[in-house]
Design brief:
The complex is a heterodimer of chains A (363) and B (325). Chain A has 363 residues and is an alpha+beta fold. Chain A contains 5 helices and 16 strands. A 5-stranded mixed beta sheet of chain A has the order 1-5-6-2-7, with no helix packed on it. A 5-stranded mixed barrel of chain A has the order 8-9-10-12-11. The N and C termini of chain A lie far apart (74 Å). In chain B, α3 packs across α4. The N and C termini of chain B lie far apart (55 Å). At the A-B interface, β1 and α2 of A face β3, α4 and α7 of B. Chain A: One of its GO terms (cellular component) is cytoplasmic exosome (RNase complex). Chain A: This is Exosome complex component RRP40. Chain A: Keywords: Exosome, RNA-binding.
Amino acid sequence: MSAATALPPAPSSLPPPPSAGSTFEAPPLAVIPGDDLTRYILHHPPPSNSQQSDARKHKKSRSNAGDANRNSEDEARLPPKLGTGLICIQLPTNDKNNNNINSSIRIQATVAGRLVYRQNSRTWFVASNPRRYHLSQSPAATPISSNNMSKVTSNMGVGDRVIGIVEDQKASADYYRINIFGSHSALLHVLSFEGATKRNRPQLEPGSLVYCRVIKGFAGGRMDPELSCKVGSGSGNNSSSSKGKSVYNDEEEDDGGASGKDWMTNEGTYGPLNGGTSFRVSIGLARELLLPENAVLSALDKSGIPFEIAIGVNGMVWVNSPDPEITIMILNAIKNSEVMPEDKVRGMVKVMVKNVKKELMDE
Amino acid sequence: MTSYPRPSNRKPSTLRPLSAELSPLHRSDGSASLKCGNTHILAAVQGPIAPRIPNRERYDRGIVSVAFSKGLVMMSNAAAGGGNSSGGVVQDEDNKDSGANKSANTMTSLPVPLPSGGGATERELEYFLRDALSSCIMLERYPRCVIQVVIQIVQADGSVLGTAVNCAVMALMDAGIAMRGLAVAATCVAINRSPLSRAEDMDIDASDKEQNKSDGVTIWLDPTAEEESGEGHGMVVIVVDASKIPKQLKSSSITSISNDMDQVELNAEQDDANIITSFTYGSPLSLDGLLSSIESSKQSCAAFTAFMRLAVEQKVQKEEQTLWS
């Protein structure tokens, strides 16, 4: 594609969206697959440094004076990035009438959901709440350029921390087969635990839960995904099944300083999860639970009941606590928080904790 | 006003009231329940999942597998009066009929939207749906996976196949499966003007464009079972890609038709509504009937797309309040 010339300035009032049968005047908050979003994304004004919107804010701001020059070297006018749920396709330019270079690009939504713009990373994506974990769902933002018409790369999903259930070891003596509730089951090498050797390694029964990290993705569908219970090395390093003790990798620290103690102590990050109970939630809820200021978890934390919890981005949650009543209460609180607004969540947790404490004291 | 009134007194291009619910089933990855008048379809999507038979998987793309739920098979054989999965909404007298007396065009067609004389089996319908859906799902994103769609006909009152397509598409949207377009189906009945009479009605209705009457064909959108079972009624289900419907729906996409009807030029300049696939049943359709149906179906598809958008909006709004803090 030739270098883009400056776009003509957008009209003072944005035209109604071009999607078929649409009745909106405002830019669509909700998009359905196939929606043409070229105008909103390419005409969005460059983010100004003075108003850094809160990263948690999801309202998309629309300005009437937007125009974005794709190839300009101006910092503030870098091209926007596309996250999950959006693709950029190149249409054949048979259009003789329209000389606008952007008629050859079309940004489409591929999933139904809410169109969101993150100011900080200049990323547009469609927020949706699927129930099934699919390994190519990590939002790797791709800048719009002519080179990026290729398919989704194969390294999606790498680095995700998931909880899986051990299926069996019939396939091979070297690998556990783990169900991570994705499309296919994943492989976990029996020695990929911290400090594990052939004579000294955890024996995982079928049905046990493991908290592990994805180290190899789907690779375009040719291979089964692979997992590891070792603390992560840099993201570029795929040979994390190297033997011996793990190394804290300083440069490309992928794992956020996760503790890498031996599997025998229960203080490492990854490994089997004993006791407690596990349940599945939607991917969106799992993502919410992993945020630092999650309402329900902080409310549970404040209430002082003892529990431990592990959350996998594949939608599995594991909870353990000394009393089964508390475990069940936590489970219900988390499930309820999916459908309750944030302010009500804290109240709900308070009531539930009170009830459980009362019940425990009555015994 | 209309020379050939619909039994239900609807205008020819009016759809029945639509109502939909996203995610009615909790164990499926995605599900949708769609009611189109009295036709009620439930679709559930599981996917992407691993195929149960390893032979079926393709290394480079996903596979769509459609199944009409098993209750259908029993229904088409047994007497349908008082049947549970397909309510006896068609004609009251059929409820009293015994199985043997039912005409081929009505009761046995209830669960399966075709008259048994048409010879189409469930398998053919499943393949039809599979083809329609495969063209709009981005299967290259799901290699070695299967996307399984199960359709349950809760109540059948005409336009079953079209509604099933729409319901499946909504369920796919609910499951978050990547799609590059939306397949929207419209069911049309084409009625050839009977040669016996109606010559006098021609004058009255020549100016009524809404009836889409061209050269003696009447098109009704979204037929009920009663309308489908009329004599000489040919039904066609047209599935279009909703993201490509042109803005101006009125202008015809057919620029010229040669004299002997052998060649039809489509207006290729407009970003034409790409027809993904179609399915005909009932009486044979004339070429006029087919072309007029294509025109009518565009309106129907645009309306349905707007409806789907509304459903998604509601879901998104609800999520915004509760899920995304």
